[in-house]
Design a protein that fits this description.
The protein is α/β, with parallel strands linked by helices. It contains twelve helices and twelve strands. Among the domains are: 65 residues; 91 residues, no CATH class. Helix content is 32%, strand content 18%. Helix 8 links the parallel strand 7 and strand 8. The longest helix is centred in the middle third of the chain and has 18 residues. Bound molecules: adenosine-5'-triphosphate, iron/sulfur cluster (SF4) and magnesium ion.
Amino acid sequence: MTAADTAADTVAAPLLSVRDLTVTYAPPRRRGSLGTGAALSGVDLEIHAGEIVGVVGETGSGKTTLARATVGLVQPAAGSIDFAGAELGGLRGRELRDFRRTGQVQLAFQDPLRSLDGDLTVAQVVGEPLEIVGTDRAERRRRVDEALALVGLEPTFRDRYPRQLSGGQRQRVSLARAIVTRPRLLFCDEPVSALDVSNRNLVLRLLDRLREELGLAVVIIAHDLSSLAGIADRVAVFYRGRLVEQGPISEVLERPAHPYTALLAASAPSVQHEDRLRPEQLRHPAGDVAREWPPGACVFAARCAFAHDACHEQPALAPAPDTARRTAACHVADTWRARLTTTTTAPGKVPST
Ligand SMILES: Nc1ncnc2c1ncn2[C@@H]1O[C@H](COP(=O)(O)OP(=O)(O)OP(=O)(O)O)[C@@H](O)[C@H]1O
Ligand code: SF4
Ligand SMILES: [Mg+2]
């Protein structure tokens, strides 16, 4: 292998590589209570430096868990989390604390008001991660001002309290806190879901600028595909703890390969694509309630209009039919579109369990 090959490999290597990641939360400590099952199962995902990746899925699909596992707030039950060549999944105790102190992977929390300590000023909230790192006072002040400027807040915001800020301003403070350690990878958990349209666009543009100016990789967690259009390079779609489709966002929006992604796109009125489908073409008319599938079946089987016998087994992610850049976990990713008309008039047989 030549030096040039080695350099090319280094450039192409993902910053984050998650393999077969499974996270299971412990059941509540109550007699007779049930466990929550796996919050994430067998997830494979790569994030490259300088890219914005959207993570989408309905509530409870495991989006926050993916971020929490990567920053070390929850331990994986199985699988690996490789960050810039270092395995994070197995870190415990002091090793984990040492890694978190570097601030290389940061998480801007889902609910900025709850995550920001009301008794601390903006400067204290933003500077807190630097205290943990051990940065001295003068440098901390400089870095806090720099982070506030990067998110578009004047130095006069330093002495305000979070309760004295608007929702958009709080979101910016949350971002400033997340970037103050100059991370290489930033997870933003639903950064815009609580904002109005104009603040939403401002925050999304800000993330794009931070990516460009700091060379950050950014993961934006969202409920819907439409909020990511025009900002994310790639999107990863989750359903009940499984990654069901991932690829360039333009391709995923244009021609979803997984029926669940198609349902998400069909349910988002602002998503424009050539062959717009209707949700009722993709959902099984029986709905969730009447249909039970055994453990190990495709996670989407209960709702899927195209479920059939093969779906008793969860499919692995495989290249989507029309492109090598996209993967989807559906046994009939290449044929379900052809069945659209017949399926809507004659739904597949529901298995008895
Ligand atoms: N601390 C916890 N203890 C037990 N179960 C949990 C815990 N946190 C999350 N879960 C469960 O794990 C699953 C995934 O949760 P997660 O918070 O990752 O979902 P999410 O996709 O981020 O949802 P939302 O869009 O509502 O934020 C859910 O079933 C949830 O109830
Ligand atoms: S594998 Fe089967 S149930 Fe799952 S999405 Fe594809 S057709 Fe639907
Ligand atoms: Mg969440």
